[in-house]
Write a structure and sequence with these properties.
406 residues, alpha/beta, Aspartate Aminotransferase, domain 1, Aspartate Aminotransferase, domain 2, 15 strands, globular, binds pyridoxal-5'-phosphate, pyridoxal phosphate, hydrolase, kynureninase activity
């Protein structure tokens, strides 16, 4: 592909109109939308309205008048089709970490079993929350098995199989249908972290037999920094699961102010406290954009951007080793390479206006967000990467300095 070919591909791109729906700074090629999605153009005005009109003028009346109270269910219903779930199977609440805690504890109590099965190298919060749940519940332990040994590791003690659908580092995607079926056959529940999948790849949780899922609002959903997260519980399971955080918002009648807890209906029981309305407003705008999109077109463009990126790096910077799967259906929507000086190279790229990220110890990671990234962006970014590698500018000592978030 030449630069002209890249431009022609962008001109023919059915998603090209979405780029102007985002605020992107001049002089930057943003390849980190898998970590923090870009700002939708409508979001600033929506948040300003929520602050000035709903909070400023409506005051406490807005819990009803602006349906603040209904935001967790309303935005959950908006996200549901992106997950392949029914509207009453998804709710927005808390962080992904907190939701993992709720669903892991609920799964252990519901099954009466003692093991959380996961894989080594899963996203740290998934592992750490599992370890915290195990420390809290007598007799419970965490077991980690490599991806190809997971099915065999499921046994009569397994309460829940906890996996990230798309791996945060490599981008490798698990076979959700096969592993959910294996968990079910062993009498265990499956809990999928879809943080790197939702809005990135087509999902069908119900068809694929997933029991439980959690995910972030601030990545491909473009909900803003620290956006609220979501949970999914297969409808038939909802009455059988109890949240360990029995806050008043998950109560059957929160405004009856009763002394004793009674779990709310359906997904409501997975709420804990008062929803963060400003974050909810920003998330709603991000999700609305995704709802306009054909996910098959997103997947096709993601695959094309990946192939272009991989081919250009193979030609211009062969010392970077591709660590993402080459088959499109075996991965998410980012591309990752390994290099012993990944940190310095990423810093050099950022200094040249190409924002990707570094994942310790040696991975360079680039998010491919088809809504606001084109073939020409990939062409230019890889051009700059090639120059940095050929010229050795990454060796500048200032690029070795580690920031708090790298
Ligand atoms: C797979 C996965 N799960 C969870 C998180 C973060 O969870 P939280 O929003 O609770 O910080 C991330 C963040 O990158 C992630 O990649």
């Amino acid at each position: 592909m030449t630069l002209d070919d890249a431009r022609a591909a962008d001109a023919a791109d059915p998603l090209r109109g979405f780029r102007e729906r985002f605020v992107l700074p001049d002089g930057v090629i943003y390849l980190d939308g898998n970590s923090l999605g870009a700002l939708p153009a409508v979001t600033a005005a929506r948040v300003a309205r929520t602050v000035a009109d709903e909070w400023g003028r409506g005051l406490i009346r807005s819990w009803n008048d602006a349906d603040w109270l209904g935001a967790p269910q309303r935005i959950g219903a908006l996200i549901a089709p992106l997950l392949g779930a029914a509207e009453d199977e998804v709710i927005v609440a808390d962080s992904t970490s907190a939701n993992l805690f709720k669903l892991l504890a609920a799964a252990i109590r519901a099954t009466g079993r003692s093991t959380i099965l996961t894989e080594p190298g899963n996203f740290p919060t998934d592992l750490h929350v599992a370890q915290g749940v195990a420390a809290l519940l007598p007799g419970v332990s965490v077991r980690a098995a490599p991806a190809d040994e997971l099915a065999a590791a499921l046994d009569g003690d397994t309460a829940v199989l906890l996996l990230s659908h798309v791996h945060y580092r490599s981008g490798a995607r698990h076979d959700m249908a096969a592993l959910s079926a294996a968990a079910r056959a062993a009498g265990a529940l499956s809990l999928w972290d879809v943080s790197h999948s939702v809005g990135a790849v087509p999902l069908d949780l119900v068809r694929d037999g997933a029991d439980l899922a959690v995910g972030c609002g601030y990545k491909f959903l473009n909900g803003g920094p620290g956006a609220p997260a979501f949970l999914f519980v297969r409808r038939a399971l909802q009455p059988t699961l109890a949240s360990p955080i029995t806050g008043w918002m998950g109560h059957k009648r929160p405004f009856a102010f009763e002394d004793d807890y009674a779990a709310g209906e359906g997904m409501t029981r997975f709420l804990a406290g008062t929803p963060p309305i400003l974050g909810m407003a920003a998330l709603e705008e991000g999700v609305r954009i995704l709802r306009e999109v054909d996910m098959a077109a997103v997947a096709a463009k993601s695959a094309a951007l990946f192939d272009l990126f991989a081919a250009r790096v193979a030609a211009l910077a062969p010392e970077l080793r591709l660590v993402s799967p080459t088959q499109a259906r075996a991965r998410g929507s980012h591309i990752a390479f390994a290099h012993p000086h990944a940190h310095e190279i990423v810093q050099a790229l950022i200094a040249d206006g190409v924002i990707g990220d570094f994942r310790a110890p040696d991975v360079l990671r680039f998010g491919l967000t088809p809504l606001y990234l084109g073939h020409e962006d990939v062409w230019r970014a890889t051009d700059i990467l090639g120059r940095i590698m050929a010229g050795g500018s990454w060796r500048d000592p200032r690029f070795a300095v580690r920031a708090r978030v790298t």
